[in-house]
Amino acid sequence: MNSSFDGRISYTATQSNRDAILAVLGRVLPMSGLVLEVASGTGEHAAYFASQLPGILRGAGRLLAPGSPLYFYGAFRVDRRHTAPSNEAFDRGLRRHDPEWGVRDLESVAAEAAVHGLVLAETVDMPRDNLSVVFRKA
Length: 138
Fold this sequence. Notes:
The protein has 138 residues and is of the alpha+beta class. The protein has helices at residues 12-28, 44-52, 85-97, 106-115, and strands spanning 2-3, 9-10, 69-74, 76-78, 81-82, 104-105, 118-125, 131-137.
């Protein structure tokens, strides 16, 4: 973690992953529309993407139309296994704080998404041990 001259917090992982995430978003998102970012931490990714994808951040709240993407980025377990030791440590820290928290199994997330008419379309490995996960509304 670093602090800029104006007091904003910046994370090295954000710098390492932002172009890889942007590449996925550039492929799966429409040229304009709505984006809702949840649990964005410092907001660095959102600020960077807004500057690179003009018109994409205009509010949130409408339901997804058929074929529309739902994008997740973060740590997931795959086949009930952590994808990296750092994600396992992150999971332990979350669960110490609250046993209901933690890194989720991608398969469980996909099963819950299917209940709501969303299909797992693609999973992309990111440079810093996380995944970009794209669902599409059926």
